[in-house]
Design a protein that fits this description.
With about 170 residues, this protein is mainly α. The chain is built from 7 helices and no strands. It is flat and about 65 Å long.
Length: about 170
């Protein structure tokens, strides 16, 4: 009974669930066509290995009864509270930015919109410098270009790109 109660801690159960879920995804990927299974198979294989190690660590942690004694837990509660008006204002900013992203994808296309989105997000919502925001935008464009080239993906073009033809990474 003691063995079962130690193994049924919520962290161990969750780690086991994640391990089984990625294992199932790996098995399911074998039913895809050759090119279609490469990406999900290797992602699930990598995540299954990580989930296995996480499961082992959680089992070891529960055996040491560190969870029962409260060791390792941190009280994340803060002494201050954000007023609800500020929470709603921040939520509306994020929502507006996401809506602008969708509109810009429709108008400008995916690659250009994601690049602009990253620059705006880093500069105005996180408060970084223009230099860091530009590097993040260019890194996002480089990642999208790499994925596009390796996996032969055509990103959606915008309405404006029907009139103005942009070079490869942007159009």
């Amino acid at each position: 009974m003691i063995v079962i109660s130690r193994l049924l801690k919520i962290r161990v159960v969750f780690a086991a669930f994640i391990f089984v879920a990625f294992g199932y995804g790996m098995c399911e990927a074998f039913s895809f066509g050759f090119l279609a299974k490469i990406f999900p198979l290797y992602i699930c294989l990598f995540c299954t290995i990580l989930a296995f190690f996480n499961l082992i660590l959680e089992i070891r942690h529960s055996w040491r009864e560190a969870i029962d004694s409260g060791v390792g837990f941190v009280d994340l509660e803060s002494e201050w509270d954000i007023p609800m008006s500020e929470v709603i204002e921040r939520f509306c900013r994020y929502l507006l930015l996401l809506l602008l992203l969708y509109v810009s994808i429709w108008l400008l296309g995916y690659s250009l919109s994601i690049t602009i989105f990253l620059v705006i997000f880093y500069r105005f919502l996180t408060g970084t410098t223009w230099r860091i925001a530009s590097v993040a935008g260019l890194a996002g464009l480089a990642f999208i270009s790499l994925i596009s080239k390796l996996m032969v993906i055509d990103w959606p073009l915008g309405i404006i790109q029907n009139w103005i033809h942009l070079p490869w990474p942007l159009g």
